[in-house]
Amino acid sequence: MQTELKQPGSLLDPSGKLAQIGWSPQPLLDCNLERVAFYPWLKKPAQRFRIKRWDYYAVFTLQRFFSATIADLGYAGNIFVYTIDFSTCEVHEEGLVVPLARGVRLPRNSTQGDSSYKGKGVEVYFGVEADCRHIQVDWPGFHDGRGIQADIRLHCPLDQESMTLVVPIEHKRFYYNRKINCMPAEGELRYGDILEILEPRHAIGSLDWGRGVWAYSSFWNWASASGFLPDGRTVGLNLGTGFGDTSAATEDCLVLDGRIHKLDQVGFDYDASDYMKPWKFRDNQGRLELDFTPFTERVAQTDLKIIFSEVHQMFGYYNGHVVANDGENIQLDNLIGFAEEHHARW
Length: 346
Hints:
The chain is an all-beta fold. The protein has one domain. It has one helix and 24 strands. Strand 5 (64-72) and strand 6 (76-85) form a beta hairpin. The chain starts with 8 loop residues before the first strand and ends with a strand.
């Protein structure tokens, strides 16, 4: 059921269709979005208005969760930063909508290049360096002038594996995604008068790198976690469902000490009328059995009539076990992470 990609090549063939479909532990395909051609009656330069591109970074510290995103939705850019204090469960988020994504810069591929936006009193920069990912944020007006600044490096050796997925959506659309979990973090994060010094033995980050052409009405579930086992190894989860045709491959995996342990299919069991109730995750091969207990909820909603997005992102603790490829039973005790439901018209 799980098709692993092993040959480098182009994402899209000359006709604009996916050249390969499946998953890989390293990015192999060149993201040649210039070949997008899903509306035959639409002139080539106008095709870009339906392409979605984003870089979403997340960092767990001892005190808080921090996230920054640079996105180009084709007709608009979206810059947003949010933070959650674990002791108070305070959630604060600020965002910018940039018409026609002016000033938004995103690289062709996930392996090199810089992402950036500067404008409206905000500077966000993501850099790819030899063995790390560099996050810089300066938003003085964040939270009514409280301000937020970050200068963080996420350690990411070249041989670190990641969950890379290529799947079709309907007949002509597609999703190309790379998720890198478990990158130890170091640097500084200042939120108002609070300064945190991040150390790689305690702080850890992840990247959600997405490119594709989605259906106008979309839905997905996503669950992710990155942390440390008692023996010092890094451990993470990436689980997802609801988007595209995943018959060739899903994005479900355990990430253990920088290596992907592929799972087949994992189900999301939760109460959409009360997201704070415990969630359950079970796979179809008896390798994963996890309970997720939320402690706070982030709700993000955008309603511009034609454009609509609603996210319920729950933060909580994962408890249970996952079996690695070699049969090792990995016990997870209060691994902090998130799980979400997302509806969009975009």
